[in-house]
Amino acid sequence: MPEQPKPQRIIPIQPLFKAEPKVYPRTIEGFFQRWRWGFVWLTQLIFYGLCWLPWNGRQAVLFDLEARRFYLFDLVLWPQDTIYLAILLVLSALALFLFTAVAGRLWCGYTCPQTVYTEIFLWIEQLIEGDRPARMKLDAAPMTSSKLGKKSLKHTLWIVLSLWTGITFVGYFTPIRDLGNEALTLSMTGAEIFWILFYGAATYGNAGFLREQMCKYICPYARFQFVMFDSDTLIITYDEARGDPRGGRSKKADPRQQGLGDCVDCGICVQVCPTGIDIRDGLQVECIGCAACIDACDQVMDKMDYPRGLIRYSTENALKGGLGRSEIVKRAFRPRTLVYSAVFLILSAATAWSLTHRPPLRVDIVRDRGVMSREADDGSIENVFHLQLINTSEVTRTYAVSVAGIEGIHLARPETVTVPGAAAASATITVRVGAEQAENLHGARAMRFTLADVGSPDVQVEEAAKFWLP
Question: Cα(394)–Cα(371) distance, rounded to whole angstroms?
Answer without folding.
Answer: 36
